[in-house]
Amino acid sequence: MSIYELVEEPIFPDPRLANDEGLLAYGGDLSVERVLLAYRSGIFPWYCEDSPDILWWSPGERTILFPDKFKLSKSLRQKIRRQTFEVRVDTAFEEVIVACGRVPRDGQDGTWITPEMMTAYIKLHHLGLAHSVESWRDGQLVGGLYGVSLGNAFFGESMFHLETDASKVAFYYLCQISKNFKFDFIDCQMKTSHLMSLGAEEVTRDEFLHMLHKSNQEKTKRGKWELIGNYEL
Predict the structure, then answer these.
(1) d(CA 118, CA 185)
(2) What mean pLDDT comes out for the span 10-38?
(3) Other CB atoms within 10 Å distance of the CB of residue 159
(4) Cα separation, 99 vs 161, whole angstroms
(5) Edge to edge, what strands does the sheet with 185-189 contain?
(6) DSSP string, 22-45
(7) In this predicted model, what pLDDT tens digit does every residue of 37-60 receive, in sequence order?
(8) What's the confidence (pLDDT) of residue 232?
């Protein structure tokens, strides 16, 4: 299959035309309009170290997590009960994305979070569309995650931890927030052993696009998020 070169106009080919690795297109920019269209179409951007262009992906197998299927281990449950970490939402988005750019994600070499990517997602955060869930200890940010909220879904981008389980705790709270919002799913994009251990599962591209179409019909929960609700174990 051909890899499509994007034009200046923010449009994408059908995500079903991606190659066997999930690569659909290259080029374009990271404008708010283009990035949001990508997510609504089942596509996400990703840089590779050996390519100067933005690469746009729609894998044949998509990793997602249903918020009520998060796997809570005994040790993680204890840390949450003991309040080992203070969890905050949308208080340090830029710090989280910078930290994610410095710490490679599980199963990946290097980092794909370039300064251009940081700028794009910080813009989305200022528009109330990108969010961070953060784990703090003794006033220091020690773990967290960020992603984009559109329709009735959350599109996870990256997570990091400087202390054991700090990112897992943030992920647990993301699931609780998602349940309160009645989100359909959390998009985890690509399969890793870490995500699968937390309850993620794979669906086909067609299944994902069907769920995404349904999610896109719902109004986006825009603005700063807060930890509101009963998250007791």
Answers:
(1) 24
(2) 96
(3) 28
(4) 9
(5) 86-89, 130-137, 140-150, 153-161, 185-189, 61-65, 201-204
(6) SEEEE-----HHHHHHHHHTT-EE
(7) 999 999 999 887 667 789 999 999
(8) 53
Closest CA to 178 of 91, 92, 84, 89: 89
CA angle 142, 145, 146 (to 5 degrees): 140
- One-letter amino acid of 164: T
pLDDT tens digits, residue range 186-197? 999 999 998 999
Give the whole-angstrom CA distance, residue 156 versus residue 145.
8
Cβ of 160: how many Cβ atoms within 10 Å? Answer: 24
Mean pLDDT (the chain) is 92
Q: For tokens 């890793």, what's the residue?
A: 192
C-alpha 189/C-alpha 224 separation (Å) is 24
Length of the chain: 233
Backbone φ and ψ of 155, nearest 5°: -105, 100
Q: State the average pLDDT over residues 65-77.
A: 95
Q: What's the confidence (pLDDT) of residue 106?
A: 52
Asked if residues 204 and 117 have their Cβ atoms less than 8 Å apart, the reply is no
CA-nearest of 30, 46, 38, 32 to 14 is: 38
Predicted TM-score (pTM) of this structure: 0.92
What is the CA angle 143-189-104, rounded to 5? 40
Please state, in angstroms and rounded to a whole number, the distance separating the CA atoms of residues 170 and 178. 12
Residue type for position 27: G
Is pLDDT of 110 > 50?
Answer: no
